# Entry
Amino acid sequence: MPDETTLFNGQPVINFDSETDRRNFLKYAGIVGVGATLVAAGTRTKFASAQAAQGDIDILNYALTLEFLEANFYKQGVDGGILSGRELALVTPIRDHEAAHVSMLSSTISDLGGQPVKEPQFKYPAGTFKDKATFLKTASTFEELGVVAYHGQVPNIESVDILAAAGSIAGVESRHAAILADLIGGDPFPSPVENSKPMSFVLQQAKPFIK
# Structure
């Protein structure tokens, strides 16, 4: 589970171009929910709606950064040649899905009038793509984290259209998690309902590998 496993042994792998980009990623947890709080108080105003829209964009950029990481991770894993047979056949579509998620999220942010975050640089610990078991275990941890991340943010999304998009991606991430769990001998469906974690938890998990 994501709360019991440390990705990349806690080593930083994400390198942002600027300190501003890094801070923006880490501060999303403090921004999201402003609009929702005002609505809950019965004060849906023009200001509240604007805040909610910005909150949705922040959630999408937060998800986009994590999707950049997953897309890059799977690309290097598949291109590295450590997988074959059934494992390669199952992981290759996951690589393609993560790349599609990056494109989908970037387009959605632009359509909303926002600015998609730039893709960070990634530097993984030595051996990440040399050992099949290590790669698959890390991939499984990634997918479990992605599932709880998406489900944790669904209640904070104001836009119905964005909610539908996030829900559809969350469903795919759950399928990925089940496949990876099966490949490493784990439980592909450990619970009758999906767990969810707040953004603060996911950021805490991501923080060690953000340089």
Q: What stands out?
A: The longest strand covers residues 14-15. The CA atoms of residues 60 and 93 lie 22 Å apart.
